[in-house]
């Protein structure tokens, strides 16, 4: 794909973004505020996913592995074994 068609494709994608979001009716300064808020929100979602999703996945795996391994009947049985 040459640079001209890539540039036209990117321009077409941007035009679709303008149409779908409806920001083509806004003034340029309003569009920049909207785009800034949107980019900030997307960045926050990506950062939060990067930080917290691995923790939750690890906790879920620990929970399910504990279910598979089985748990002792009671803590009293554990105390009597010592």
UniProtKB/TrEMBL annotation:
GO cellular component, one term: endoplasmic reticulum membrane
One Pfam family named in its UniProt record: SPT_ssu-like
Residue intervals passing through the bilayer: 9-26, 32-53
Subcellular localization(s) per the UniProt record: Endoplasmic reticulum membrane
Keywords noted in UniProt: Endoplasmic reticulum, Lipid metabolism, Membrane, Sphingolipid metabolism, Transmembrane, Transmembrane helix
Topology of the protein relative to the lipid bilayer: Multi-pass membrane protein
Gene Ontology MF: a single term: serine C-palmitoyltransferase activity
KW Ion transport (keyword) present: no
A biological process term (GO) from this entry: endoplasmic reticulum organization
InterPro entries given in the database record: Ser_palmitoyltrfase_ssu-like (IPR024512)
Pathway: Sphingolipid metabolism; Lipid metabolism; sphingolipid metabolism
Origin: domain of life: Eukaryota
Keyword Endoplasmic reticulum attributed: yes
Homology family: Belongs to the SPTSS family. SPTSSB subfamily.
Function in brief: Component of the serine palmitoyltransferase multisubunit enzyme (SPT) that catalyzes the initial and rate-limiting step in sphingolipid biosynthesis by condensing L-serine and activated acyl-CoA (most commonly palmitoyl-CoA) to form long-chain bases. The SPT complex is composed of SPTLC1, SPTLC2 or SPTLC3 and SPTSSA or SPTSSB. Within this complex, the heterodimer consisting of SPTLC1 and SPTLC2/SPTLC3 forms the catalytic core. Within the SPT complex, SPTSSB stimulates the catalytic activity and plays a role in substrate specificity.
Quaternary structure, from the entry: Component of the serine palmitoyltransferase (SPT) complex, which is composed of SPTLC1, SPTLC2 or SPTLC3 and SPTSSA or SPTSSB. The heterodimer consisting of SPTLC1 and SPTLC2/SPTLC3 forms the catalytic core of the enzyme, while SPTSSA or SPTSSB subunits determine substrate specificity. SPT also interacts with ORMDL proteins, especially ORMDL3, which negatively regulate SPT activity in the presence of ceramides.
UniProt name for this protein: Serine palmitoyltransferase small subunit B
Organism: Culter alburnus
Lineage start: Eukaryota, Metazoa, Chordata, Craniata, Vertebrata
């Amino acid at each position: 794909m040459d640079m001209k068609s890539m540039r036209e494709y990117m321009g077409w994608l941007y035009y679709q973004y303008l149409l779908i979001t409806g920001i083509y009716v806004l003034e340029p300064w309003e569009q920049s505020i909207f785009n800034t808020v949107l980019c900030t929100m997307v960045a926050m979602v990506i950062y939060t996913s990067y930080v917290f999703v691995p923790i939750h996945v690890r906790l879920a795996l620990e929970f399910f592995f504990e279910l598979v391994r089985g748990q002792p009947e009671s803590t009293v049985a554990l105390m009597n074994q010592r």
